[in-house]
UniProtKB/TrEMBL annotation:
UniProt entry keywords in alphabetical sequence: Heme, Iron, Metal-binding, Monooxygenase, Oxidoreductase
Family indicated by similarity: Belongs to the cytochrome P450 family.
The species this protein was found in: Streptomyces albiaxialis
Transferase found in the keyword field: no
UniProt keyword Iron present: yes
InterPro entries associated with the record: Cyt_P450, Cyt_P450_B, Cyt_P450_CS, Cyt_P450_sf
Signal peptide span: none
Protein's recorded name: Cytochrome P450
Highest taxon above the source species: Bacteria
Pfam families: p450
Length: 407
């Protein structure tokens, strides 16, 4: 065993124009040359499907406090911001057992399969309303007309949020999501910290109002959730609600817009899905694989971690390259770089994570993706792009900012 990979000729570099336009050739290069990659910036990256899948299913930490002194810790000190992660470190995404298990047990009391399934008629109605606007205007920006408003509205209605400044909340949650991006820029880190504090206060106020006016909604159910006398504290509740907003809409925006783009760039698959609408659910899985809403996930080693002939030391920050693993030829076959709505094992994509941190909102995201994509194809069989697309400038949460179409 060796603690440092021998080949350092290829270095993960997501900060180029070429990467933002198309990161997949770089991911393929990483898989081929340095599948276990020790970056000069101090972190590690895994890119092969089997390695990434095993990492996600492992019991490694997600808590930032376990990262050993180095570039990441130093960056927080230089910026003068707290090392404590977003939302006071209380969100499920940022916790290890036993805290994670305790909170998940309580949240699942309200976030049930039955409760999520019951939202389908509401989602269908919102999709119809959005596509009516697209039809009336003869097209437009699918991000602004469909991909963004659908999940944002669904989350708000599902929770039963009291009246709130949704435009301001959208801006704040977008900033908080930047906390998953690789950055050591002090100014960016300070902006994220300020947004984190403000969004926490905004949601906290909404929760307090809901306590006074309970209703038949998810937020009331979360407030009432109890297990063996245990309940969510106020701050724990605010953190979970905020994370549902933050993680629940941005990723679905990317799924719907990225899925539509994949169809538009592959007209044979568009025609196939139009001819065989029963393929829609599988097509959504392939969209999640081919153009994933989240490109990386992170873990922190608490003890030496062996992978691919290397030993990663304790206290190391590891990036799981979800997008790269989703196109690994060794797992998916020689057509891994192709978009195929019939792909037999598409559901084994890693875009929702795996193990204890598997995405809590995966079921809802699948429902929204299936209905949005299915109706889009059914209603607009001749849809085509009408201008240049624009990416959102993010690396981990890479997605479209604008997708202009004609119908």
């Amino acid at each position: 065993m060796t603690t440092v990979p021998r080949d350092r000729t290829v270095i993960f570099n997501p900060f180029t124009r070429e990467f933002m336009e198309d990161p997949y050739p770089h991911y393929a290069e990483l898989r081929r040359e340095v599948p276990v990659h020790h970056h000069p910036g101090g972190f590690w990256m895994l890119s092969r499907y089997d390695d990434v899948s095993a990492l996600l299913r492992s019991d490694l930490s997600v808590e930032q406090r376990h990262v050993a002194p180095g570039p990441f810790r130093d960056a927080y000190a230089r910026a003068g911001v707290s090392e404590k992660p977003r939302l006071k470190g209380l969100a499920l995404l940022d916790l290890d057992p036993p805290d994670h298990d305790r909170l998940l047990k309580l949240v699942k009391k309200a976030f049930t399969t039955r409760a999520i399934s019951s939202l389908e008629p509401m989602v269908h109605g919102l999709v119809d309303e959005a596509l009516d606007r697209v039809a009336a205007e003869g097209g437009g920006d699918l991000v602004e007309l469909l991909a963004f408003p659908l999940p944002f509205t669904v989350i708000g209605r599902m929770l039963g949020m009291p009246p709130i400044d949704t435009k301001h909340l959208r801006m704040l949650t977008s900033l908080v999501m930047r906390s998953v991006e690789l950055t050591t820029d002090p100014e960016v880190m300070r902006v994220i910290e300020a947004a984190d504090v403000e969004v926490f206060e905004l949601i906290s106020d909404a929760v307090q109002r809901k306590r006074k006016e309970p209703a038949d909604d998810l937020l009331t159910a979360l407030i009432a959730a109890e297990s063996d006398g245990d309940k969510l504290t106020h701050d724990e509740l605010v953190a979970q609600v905020t994370m549902l907003y933050v993680a629940g809409y941005e990723t679905t925006v990317n799924l719907i817009s990225g899925g539509a783009l994949s169809l538009l760039r592959n007209p044979d698959q568009f025609a196939l899905l139009r001819a065989e609408p029963d393929l829609t659910a599988n097509a959504v899985e392939e969209m999640l694989r081919y153009e994933p809403p989240v490109h990386t996930s992170r873990r922190v080693t608490l003890e030496p971690y062996e992978v691919g002939g290397h030993v990663i030391p304790p206290g190391s920050f590891i990036l799981a390259n979800l997008a790269g693993a989703n196109r690994d030829e060794e797992f998916w076959g020689p057509d891994a770089e192709e978009f195929d709505v019939r792909r037999e094992k598409a559901r084994r994509q890693l875009s929702f994570g795996s193990g204890m941190h598997h995405c809590l909102g995966a079921q809802l995201s699948r429902i929204e993706g299936r209905l949005a994509i299915g109706e889009l194809v059914r209603r607009f069989p001749d849809m085509r792009m009408s201008g240049e697309i624009e990416w959102n400038g993010l690396r981990s949460l890479r997605g479209l900012a604008h997708l202009p179409v004609e119908v």
